[in-house]
Amino acid sequence: MKAREFKTASEQIAFDVNHRKTIDFNIGRYDKAVGAGMTRYKNVELAKDRAAAIKREVLNNWEKYLIEFEANCLANGAEVLWAKDDTEATQHIISILKENKATLLVKSKSMTTEEIELNHTAESVGCESIETDLGEFIVQVAGEKPYHIVTPVMHKSKEDIAVLFHEKFGTPLNSTPEELTEYVRVLLRKKYTTADIGVTGANFLIADIGGISVTENEGNGLMTTAFPKVHIVIAGIEKIIPKMSQLGLFYPLLAAHGTGQQLTAYNTIFTGPRKSNETDGPEKMYVILLDNGRTTVYEDVEAYESLACIRCGACLNACPVYKTIGGYTYDTTYNGPIGSVLTPFLKGFKDFSHLSFASTLCGKCVEVCPVKIPLTDILLTNRRKSVEQGLRPAAEKMMMKGFSLVSSNRKTMDMVPGSIKNFVTLPLNFSGWGPKRSMPAFAGKSFSAQMKELKKRKNNSDNQPD
Questions:
Q1: Tell me: the pLDDT tens digits for 228-241?
Q2: What whole-number distance in Å separates Cα of residue 158 and Cα of residue 164?
Q3: Pick the CATH number of 1-39+306-391 from 1.10.1060, 1.10.1200, 3.40.50, 3.40.1130
Q4: In which band, very low, low, confident or very high, does the pLDDT at 426 lie, cut at 50, 70 and 90?
Q5: Domain 71-292 classified CATH 3.60.15.10?
Q6: 243 half-sphere exposure, CB direction, 13 A CA radius
């Protein structure tokens, strides 16, 4: 069912001219910014090698660093809660909201909170949940989910947003981006100062200090934690790094690959609730460490390296498939190449193995990854697992067997005339390959047959007397 829905949605969005225009424009701006950002590196490959080595070392000693983080986090005065899955995470959140009699929650940008549907959970117990990242706020107002893991509203133009705000808030239809931003700033300021709970994700969990690092460009993360009395952190357990000193490597890599910046505007490290000698900060801090399928990925020797991801979004912006079918077609929290790799493990191969086939295997995602995850290799192993589990269509299996039988032997392949090959592949012009494009026609004679004739003519020519 999921595969059919994916195929139908892909066919619809791939030829939506307006969608393509918006995505090309927004990703074009990204490409230009990132190109400029990379010029600041004398040797970006060396930086990527070092970041990749650190993340692999973490995965080789994952338990050690998680325990170290927990111990230091507890020593800082925070409460650490472990969640095996989204159900346990939801139970923790409901308990905290009820214990603190929360009626208003403000949340900075976090894909992990999207993963467990935090907004829905809060609203189910009578607590209003407000997104404070501008892009996240826009998709929340629109009743949508983030389109992109870094740029939630990449699929909307400024005109689309002006129309949305006019319909929802009555702002002038010709409002400029600056005017709309100012409107949201004023609206959110009231929410910040009256919220009971502030929620953030974590870009990095720092083991040696028990700290949580949050990077953002709008200051909304700082505002989210400045006023509320309670701070909840929800972080995937793969976000761990060993030392605070390593942030000097990861911050610029994340910024350069994510937005093209030299450094993200705001980089904050939270190390617990307000101390007795401090005047600012929350009175309580909870850190929810989420598994939710990550250990399943870790157990797979062919896919575990995908847990090194730092969620920069570079692979999405580089992927020709993502740029063609967009973020919503995947119907997952994490889309693009990294989503296609992770989602079958997080949500099951039965429903999501088709995502690993939604790739050209061009390798651009591997080229741009700042921690050198072998994404195309993992996509291929996921495809093999899908076949081994009997999850591919029976017709595909028959076609592949037939193709293998004919193509595995040159003589057999050459025996079938080009006209017969064209007749056999003709239906693909109307289903599967088409109907927006035509199957390339087979030549009347195979390449090997043509080469034999060419060599024969050349030999005859060489043997002619001068």
A1: 999 999 999 999 99
A2: 10
A3: 1.10.1060
A4: confident
A5: no
A6: 7
